[in-house]
TrEMBL record:
Residues 59-95 form the RING-type domain. This is RING-type E3 ubiquitin transferase. It is found in: Cytoplasmic vesicle, Autophagosome; Endosome, Multivesicular body. One of its GO terms (molecular function) is zinc ion binding. One of its GO terms (cellular component) is autophagosome. It comes from the Eukaryota. It catalyses: S-ubiquitinyl-[E2 ubiquitin-conjugating enzyme]-L-cysteine + [acceptor protein]-L-lysine = [E2 ubiquitin-conjugating enzyme]-L-cysteine + N(6)-ubiquitinyl-[acceptor protein]-L-lysine. Gene3D superfamilies: Apoptosis, Tumor Necrosis Factor Receptor Associated Protein 2, Chain A (2.60.210.10), Zinc/RING finger domain, C3HC4 (zinc finger) (3.30.40.10). PROSITE patterns: ZF_RING_2 (PS50089), ZF_SIAH (PS51081). The keyword tRNA processing does not apply. The keyword Transferase applies. CDD domains: RING-HC_SIAHs (cd16571). Pathway: Protein modification; protein ubiquitination.
């Protein structure tokens, strides 16, 4: 039966307009190869999205942007699909029982939006369709880095110049200019590592910054000494460099050659 309202008839007759994504990758509208290519992005500096529309697309439970399927209760309150099981099928706003009602109108509104990258303040000037914005932000070359200092649970984030200053001023790490480094670590009994300290040295060379990590710890009954290099930049840039480490003592010597890992990878991930 037709309602006489073309908008609601359209929603009833074409519910397949927006299909729920199979994963958090969502609907990829911008191809992966051009995700960070400014030449491929149509900039729309005059585009504005009112705060009220953004609030409509904010899940009341997790406060994140909602993506299909967007659920609603019989009173019209909306909820993201990820939070629906968390509230035990009860609307968090009015406590009415949630069924399987899709809010197709709000999904259509979201599909029509184009929003700036959340890393705009870091330099990204791209405008992206709502459903591909999340994918872009997970790979945006302007997204900030986590502090690479692993001696504490540091939560500072920022671009490379900011983190270099942070490491120098707040963590008091050793700063070194040049591509070679010689450090003498003396341990009378190398099997006793309980008093060995974790150290970080930041190198400035080739117009880039690198972090040299050295640490010693007990793994079960065995003492472990680890040293590795990380590149302060993205992984695709880190592959342009290589490094070698040489350890010697008591007439013996061992060398290691490798490619530095990006600080996008956590200290624990690289160490493990």
């Amino acid at each position: 039966m037709a309602s006489g309202n073309p908008f609601y008839d359209d929603l009833r007759n074409k519910p397949e307009v927006i299909d729920p994504p199979e994963s958090e990758d969502l609907v990829e509208i911008v191809s992966e190869s051009s995700v960070n290519d400014p030449a491929q992005i149509a900039l729309k500096p005059n585009l504005t999205v009112s705060s009220s529309v953004r609030e409509l697309l904010e899940c009341p439970v997790c406060l994140n942007a909602m993506y299909p399927p967007i659920h609603q209760c019989s009173n019209g309150h909306t909820l993201c699909s990820g939070c629906k099981p968390r509230v035990h099928n009860r609307c968090p706003t009015c406590r009415h029982e949630l069924g399987n009602i899709r809010c197709l109108a709000l999904e259509k509104v979201a599909a029509s939006l184009e929003l700036p990258c959340k890393y705009q303040s870091y330099g990204c000037m791209g405008i992206y369709p709502y459903y591909s914005k999340l994918k872009h932000e997970s790979q945006c070359i302007f997204r900030p880095y986590n502090c690479p200092y692993a001696g504490s649970e540091c939560t500072v984030m920022g671009d490379i110049p900011y983190l270099v200053a942070h490491l120098k001023d707040d963590h008091k790490v050793d700063m070194h200019n040049g591509s070679t480094f010689n450090h003498r670590y003396v341990k009378q009994n190398p099997h006793e590592v309980e008093n060995a300290t974790w150290m970080l040295t930041v190198f400035s060379c080739f117009g880039q910054y690198f972090c040299l990590h050295f640490e010693a710890f007990q793994l079960g009954m065995a003492p472990v000494y680890i040293a590795f290099l990380r590149f302060m930049g993205d992984d695709n840039e880190s592959k342009n460099y290589s490094y070698s480490l040489e350890v010697g003592g008591n007439g013996r010597k061992m060398s290691w050659q490798g490619v530095p890992r990006s600080i996008r990878d956590s200290h624990k991930k690289v160490r493990d």
